[in-house]
Amino acid sequence: MLTLLLLVIFAALVFEFINGFHDTANSIATVVATKVLTPGKAVMLAASMNLIGAFFGTAVAKTISSGLIDAEVVQVTSQVILCALMGGITWNLITWWFGLPSSSSHALIGGLCGAALSASHGNWHALVWSQASVEGWTHNKGLLWKVVLPMVSSPLAGFLLGVLILALLYALIYGLSKVPGVLGRFARPRWVNAFFGKAQLASAAYMGFAHGSNDAQKTMGIIALALFGAQAAGTLDTLPAWLAFLHPSSSDNAHIDSWIIATCALVMAAGTAAGGWRIIKTLGHKMVKLQPIDGFAAETASATILVTAAHFGMPVSTTHSISTAIMGVGFGKNPKALKITVIERIIWAWILTIPAAGGVAYLLYKIVERMGWA
Predict the structure, then answer these.
(1) pLDDT tens per residue, range 279-300
(2) Which of 313, 363, 365 is nearest to 76 (CA)?
(3) What are phi and psi of 255, to 5 degrees?
(4) Which residue among 99, 140, 176, 341 is least enclosed by CB atoms within 10 Å?
(5) What sections of 233-339 are H helices per DSSP?
(6) Nearest CA-CA partner of 205 in 31, 62, 331, 374
């Protein structure tokens, strides 16, 4: 059983690495598309900011480890978590291969739900649907509050915020153009591109930080969930001394140990450094042609959504927020500039992610069960 637990932790870190290179595009697609940074420099910026962002907060990790699966209905064993991870990894690799910016977050959540349903023999009560708290939104639990509502609201917010920020920037530039003298010169296209070429370095760093603060936490929650499950099953009772750090330092199943945070942060940063050029091409070049001011608006809008969601413990999709922010910016410039066929492919990937990853995890657990390994 200890070997299985270590295999689960390894698979979780593989997922984190894949999440890094799968979602690298989300952090750097716009800054590459606007030619502000070369792909290599953009990847290193994203990786370093991912690493920093992963250390800020654990609210999302707590949602994954204690807010979605009802441990009283289904025992969250290492087999359940391993099948959940494999479901998420499989869907991530499929969408990466076809260049579709699907959500790693929803792939992981779909895998976790599918494996839990399979282990409970289709008992939907194994999933926590809704637990509203009188203490406020931050303490609400369940798929409704933490997954479904953010899944709908975050893309819409990304789109609207992208439009709003671009409109405000255009209004500011128009106002400057009416000012005589030196200030008026800053409204000229050459000056605007030069300024936002520099400003986009800050917005790209902000986007990388936001990605790390939200996405890295999801695997932290999975590892914590696996360790608490192993502790309940007695797997950790006879650990060798060199693995003593695996013992959770708290009896609270929402607690995330420091070594988990550090390990996930480093692995995601390494995955990000590996790059994800297929998805960068889709996000950065195929949806709409971007200028530095557009990239700044899209990255600022998306990063703001992610940081806000991370504060409230919502495992939202980085892919959804940046994709719709780019759509919003494109719509703000010229609604006819958007390539609808590319957008349709992306939306279909969104719709399919949770059921597809969940279906893979469900079937994998059935196979494990049939083989007598569960």
Answers:
(1) 566 555 565 677 899 989 999 9
(2) 365
(3) -80, 135
(4) 341
(5) 258-274, 277-281, 292-311, 318-333
(6) 31
How far, CA to CA in Å, does 352 sit from each of 134, 213, 271, 277, 279? 34, 25, 24, 22, 17
Tell me the residue type at 83.
C
Contacts of 106 (CB under 8 A, 6+ apart): 147, 151, 317, 350, 353, 354, 357
Tokens of 3: 């070997």
Give the whole-angstrom CA distance, residue 198 versus residue 195: 5
367's CB contacts (< 8 A; 6+ apart) are: none
Kindly report the pTM of this predicted structure. 0.86
Q: Read out DSSP for 167-180?
A: HHHHHHHHHHHTS-
DSSP E strands in 184-264: the ranges are none
List the domain boundaries for the chain: 2-367
pLDDT digits (tens, 9 = 90+) for 85-139: 999 999 988 887 887 767 888 899 999 999 999 999 999 999 998 876 656 555 6
Please provide residue 279's backbone torsions phi and psi, each rounded to the nearest 5 degrees. -75, -35
Reading the block at residue 192, the tokens are: 């605007």
DSSP letter for each residue of 73-98: TS---HHHHHHHHHHHHHHHHHHHHT
Q: What share of the chain is helix, strand, coil (3-state, %, to 5)?
A: 75, 0, 25
Whole-number Cα distances in Å, 84 to 75, 110, 164: 14, 8, 38
